[in-house]
Amino acid sequence: MTAVLRWADEPGGGPAVVLLDQTRLPAHEEERWCRDVPALVRAIRELAVRGAPVLGVAGAYGVALAAARGDDVEAAAAELAEARPTAVNLRYGVERARAAWRAAGRAGGDATGTALAAARELHAEDARASTAMAGHGLELLTRLLPAREAGWRLLTHCNTGALVSGGEGTALAVVRAAHTAGRLERLWIDETRPLLQGARLTTWEAARWGLPHTLLADNAAGSLFAAGAVDAVLIGADRVSADGSVANKVGSYPLAVLAHHHGVPFVVVAPISTVDLDTARGADITIEQRGAEEVTGSGDGRHAPAGVAVHNPAFDVTPPDLVSALVTEGGVAPPSEVRRLAAGYDGPRATELREADGMMKA
Length: 362
Ligand code: MRU
What we know:
Layout: E1 5-10, E2 14-20, E3 31-34, H1 37-45, H2 52-69, H3 73-81, H4 88-106, H5 111-144, E4 152-156, H6 171-180, E5 184-190, H7 197-209, E6 213-216, H8 221-226, E7 232-235, E8 239-241, E9 246-249, H9 252-262, E10 266-269, E11 275-276, H10 293-296, E12 297-298, E13 301-302, E14 315-318, E15 325-328, E16 331-333, H11 338-344, H12 348-361
Parallel strand pairs: 4-5, 4-7, 5-6, 7-10, 8-11, 10-15
Antiparallel strand pairs: 1-2, 2-3, 8-9, 9-14, 12-13, 15-16
Helix pairs in contact: 2-3, 2-4, 2-5, 3-4, 4-5, 4-12, 5-6
This protein binds 5-S-methyl-1-O-phosphono-5-thio-D-ribulose.
């Protein structure tokens, strides 16, 4: 597969952040070259690169790009951090590279090289976090779910695989681990209106990985639960606030309500960099509102009357009491214990986050 995201600095070409353009999938596997920060910001807003963990990695490379071009790094960092407001990983990745750049600059070192090294380090850490989450998630499912001879029927929403990560992803990495362990009967994939990340991207990844899968319209999920055909729901997260509330792709909250009603585990898989202890409650999470055209039509066609009022939040918030468990690279906990999980985890993400946070406040 074309790399989801990579750094290029070819002789004569100048530096660039190169993305697998997710707006063109599944029909076309094309690269999109971002040679300056405005181009990268556009790519982020258009969802050419998307999904919380990889947004952090993209943001970090963006800071390195600004530095390598000799642009105003502080202004570029601010622009990148604000490109999309909900996934806290973006801000985290930007701050981490920016902090590294500033520290090297103050010490008279190679600030550009240090920012790039920070981005590369985050990229590699993200891959390691994926592997750890897949292991913890599989262990959790084995504990929570009765062993079914045919395997588990898992339902997911949006896209949480290799396209969102330096590794195999978050929730989808757990599904893949279940498949590898011979425990997956079927992956139910919500289409994920309005931008169809499930229909376009998760089906594409599931097919490449050989996962038995079935696509459904979002509003068909209820009938699957009623039929007893869902053993667990696995989703990712764009931000987990200090009270354990989970912001994720719009449509996640109704699934949590359904799962609760039917006594089905609702599991959130996200790296520590998705935890935002500075945001106290779910109600404080900024929810991105997107354009009306995403709802009034699809592709080049429009199916709603011109000028109709549209409500198009990109994310919704699931309260902690509807989440059975939060799976991170640092382990598994109920969402109400997210503070303990983040504080007790000594991995580089948490440490760097604390340091970057200190620098921001300084
Ligand atoms: O708007 P998107 O496609 O960036 O939204 C992505 C999601 O909501 C994912 O579920 C979330 O980022 C978790 S992926 C690890």
